[in-house]
Amino acid sequence: MPELPEVEAYRQLAQGALGRPVERAVLGDRRFVRGHSSPRILTAALRGVSFTAARRHGKLLVLDMGEPGARRSLGLRFGMTGRLLLDGRAGVDRLIYSSEREVSAWDRFTVAFRDGGRLVVRDPRLLGGVELDPDESVLGPDALSVTPAELRRALGHSEVALKARLMDQHRLAGVGNLIADELLWRASLAPHRRAGSLTPAEHRRLHRHLGSTLAELILRGGSHCGDLMPERVPGGRCRRDGTELVRSTVGGRTSWWCPRHQH
DNA sequence: ATTGTGGCCTGCCCGC
DNA sequence: TGCGGGCAGGCCACAA
Fold first, then answer.
1. Which residues, in sequence order, are CB contacts of A201 under 8 Å at separation 6+?
2. CB of A78 within 8 A of CB of A121?
3. Whose CA is nearest the C1' atom of nucleotide B8?
4. pLDDT category, A80, cuts 50, 70, 90?
5. Can you give the pTM of this predicted structure?
6. Which of A54, A134, A246, A255 stands the most exposed, by the fewest C-beta atoms within 10 Å?
7. Which nucleotide is nearest to A127 (CA to C1')?
8. What pLDDT, on a 0 to 100 scale, did the predictor assign at position A93?
């Protein structure tokens, strides 16, 4: 599903859309519009502009547009089943939980360029969305570039489960359910550990594993490419010590973890 | 402010 | 063979 690694791939794909004048934008489903702008205002804002930069903040892809001084931006979210396509090319090969089928009805948002190319968000489940001038200030620091001090601040002294805190986009942006499980498994930390209870050594370990896990998943091609993923099924075993993994609900999400080495 | 819960959305898979 | 129910989780509204 689209977590940070997928959206990073989408960002790289979207670089190919920069500098190409927009003919028009089309909403396949008006429910796909998020935020305060109406579909009419959003599509009108895109007419004739060119994108000047493709940025990523957590799971949010931001396309800047317009002249400096009158800067606007377009925010794209992908939920758990959203794909990005540019001129028919996909940003990622495979998307777990989503469908591989090509159904034009799932093209929720299309930007048609004057040169004939298209940027398409294809999302069967409508869990993603498009927003004009998204408020990025509500997002925490990006998980790929977060500093140790920022990560410690994100966890704070909270009594909330560590995993829930890591997935709180307002405090740390980019970590979703699959990566949280992978990260905690690698860092030997239990998902239900209180977020504020980590020792300095555990903070360091978590920060180190966060960076290396994300970098590795980006290289491997997605959030589903972790070492824990194949065992994230009933009867699955820990690849480190052979213990049968436990499935429980933490922070309202299905969590798989090793009861032997994660504490 | 913080935290937890339920609903939205729909393709897919399983059991009957 | 068709059908109903459960599941998946990012995000947001809402309540306490």
1. none
2. yes
3. A127
4. confident
5. 0.95
6. A246
7. B9
8. 67
